[in-house]
Write a structure and sequence with these properties.
single chain
């Protein structure tokens, strides 16, 4: 049996069993179920955005600071804008920032961590000294500094928060690689002449995925909070772009007279972050329970296939 056949069959079986167990876990875990439902609602709001918003989020067409009513379920702000429409459209920017920053930080952190852990030597030394330097500063301080240097705006906020999170992913990836690269199936892959890049991509990265997935899930909530905090401080996106943090900042001067200006955008942030954390906890429990069994079974099959190739080459005098 070829290595590709072993990989595909093991991956298919593990994938089906893993998805079934994950679905059962989410159904049993009430917090994860609630988090999935709430996050799905916000994702739908973010995807549809202005299509489901009842009014123009920037349209100053109504009475100022009107309390919640049938026509304006969340009330209006100090400029006569419908708060529900602004919260719905704000979900687009807030969730986009959260997901995009984590993707950028994940890719960059994985590259640095895997290279440092697998190659070692001077490469590891240089990368980890940079990571240690960044680790010495809180993520939010780094983001504030970068935004202050490069200026405000959506792209600068995404870059700033992404750079602030790189060290977390790099350290986790390096630690996983240091332990995984000593496994027998990695040695077997080297024996049959598999390239270093293929070993890192096909053998090491899948087995290091469990803690990285959990970290990425939780980091989305941190990124949303980071964007909201930067916008609240006036260091976020442009003032004409509604985000949850900016809506919250606009209403802070009127919180004593119009409570809804701070409550509803704050609730949107809290519910989203809480839902992501619930899902992250469920993913952690799921991956802790099944990753060792399924991934090690997958690598055992792969190792046996590699060992068979080695024995065959010995028999041929190779």
């Amino acid at each position: 049996m070829s290595n590709s056949t072993i990989d595909s069959s093991a991956s298919t079986t593990s994938g089906r069993q893993g998805f079934t167990q994950l679905r059962k876990l989410v159904w049993r875990d009430k917090k994860a179920l609630i988090g999935t439902v709430v996050l799905t609602i916000f994702l739908i709001a973010a995807i549809l955005g202005s299509l489901i918003a009842p009014y123009d989020p920037n349209g100053m067409d109504f009475d100022m600071m009107e309390p919640p009513s049938w026509s304006h379920p969340l009330g209006t702000d100090d400029l006569g804008r419908d708060l529900l429409s602004r919260v719905i459209v704000g979900a687009q920017v807030s969730l986009f920032v959260g997901v995009s920053t984590v993707i950028i930080a994940l890719v960059a952190g994985l590259i640095l961590g895997i290279l440092a852990g697998y190659l070692g030597g001077w490469v590891d030394h240089i990368i980890m000294r940079y990571i240690d330097l960044q680790w010495a500063f809180p993520n939010f301080i780094i983001a504030v500094y970068l935004v202050a240097v490069f200026g405000t705006g959506l792209s600068n906020v995404i870059v700033a928060i992404s750079l602030a999170f790189i060290d977390d992913f790099a350290r986790i990836a390096r630690g996983m690689v240091l332990s995984i690269k000593e496994e027998q199936y990695v040695a077997a892959a080297r024996t049959v002449g598999v390239s270093d890049i293929r070993i890192m991509w096909r053998h090491i990265l899948p087995n290091a995925a469990a803690p990285i997935i959990v970290l990425a899930t939780v980091s989305v909530s941190y990124a949303i909070l980071g964007e909201a905090t930067l916008s609240f401080l006036g260091l976020g996106v442009d003032a004409s772009t509604p985000t949850w943090g900016l809506i919250l900042a606009d209403g802070r001067s009127f919180i004593s007279r119009a409570w809804w200006l701070g409550i509803f955008p704050g609730l949107a942030i809290m519910l989203t972050v809480l839902s992501i954390n619930f899902i992250g906890d469920a993913l952690r429990d799921f991956l802790d329970a099944v990753s060792y069994t399924h991934l090690r079974a997958h690598e055992t099959l792969r190792y046996r296939g590699c060992a068979g190739v080695v024995e065959k080459n010995k028999g041929r005098g190779g």
